[in-house]
Amino acid sequence: xxxxxxxxxxxxxxxxxxxxxxxxxxxxxxxxxxxxxxxxxxxxxxxxxxxxxxxxxxxxxxxxxxxxxxxxxxxxxxxxxxxxxxxxxxxxxxxxxxxxxxxxxxxxxxxxxxxxxxxxxxxxxxxxxxxxx
Length: 133
Description:
Layout: H1 2-6, H2 9-30, H3 33-36, E1 44-47, H4 53-64, E2 75-77, E3 92-96, E4 109-113, E5 118-121, E6 129-132
Parallel strand pairs: 1-6
Antiparallel strand pairs: 2-3, 3-4, 4-5, 5-6
């Protein structure tokens, strides 16, 4: 970084862009082969077994139809982020995945589509993985 400070601005910007690209490529190369297999609509896939144990417990509760530990489990997920395939309002429902150590709902959720598709987010809807069972 100190080297970038001594370069002319345009050249420093080019070096910085190259470094960022290199870091991005290294990060992509480190991703697992499973995550690299996109599900429909470009969403990465994950097996249910690869999810945290709390997510697998939530999947089991969803299969059984409850009872759910959080009052908001089963509410409509609006897909405002538009990361999931577009559907009419009410198509998706969301369920909380407990996060150990937190006294609130945390960021982890499973979203279920009316057609049976399952999605997992660990970052409160910033990204999703399609769950393969």
